Amino acid sequence: MPQRFPAIGWFCLAILLAVAGALMPAVASAQAPPHSGPQLAPPETAQPNELPEPTSKLPGIPKDQVRGLDFLFGALKAAPDEESASHVEARILALWSRTSSDTTVLLMQRVKVATDAQQFGIALKLLDAVLNLHPDYIEGWSQRATLYYMRNDYQRSLEDIEQVLIREPRHFGALAGLGMIMQELGDDRRALDAFRKALAVNPHLANVRELVKTLTEKVEGRDI
């Protein structure tokens, strides 16, 4: 079935894909177990659980992941420019994607391969296995939400977005994805609420800021 990507949703889909899928190569290279197969082999320079290096404007991240995320979200709001913000975003995404399970790493590598080949049914089955093994793995839920969206299964996508937000209410990709789906379903008020929450967490989402401006005029202007 041809996939439908309405123009209004492209940027938000890009956010959702970035959070859920764009780090898959990084996860694969940073955490890949040995002998995972030649097609899945990581670069030779990869280090286990490697995080992007901070810019000179940012201090190092605390070792504890919860404290680390709290620190990074504070740094994201305070980032002085887009370059600094992009580095902080990358470190947040890397922490969300971390797992100590070699099995999960291998399965997520295969999800990436299947998704790149547009074999979405296979990718979904692999993600089902990931979430059966590790139901608290946020990026498993996020990636599956993205794939359900790409198959126009909005109900299941929304259910998985809900699971992401239960585990991490600051997941700006999931919030943006929620806004995108609500907008496509014609619920501009809920879309605006989701986009505002995404922007409150990550004020550097310029296109989301434009969507908030447009929807604010559209939604709140009706009541005047």
Automatic annotation (TrEMBL):
Region (Disordered): 30-61
InterPro entries, sorted: TPR-like_helical_dom_sf (IPR011990), TPR_rpt (IPR019734)
Stretches forming TPR repeats: 138-171, 172-205
Leader peptide range in chain numbering: 1-30
Keyword Ribonucleoprotein appears in the UniProt entry: no
Keywords: Signal, TPR repeat
Name of the protein in its database record: Tetratricopeptide TPR_2
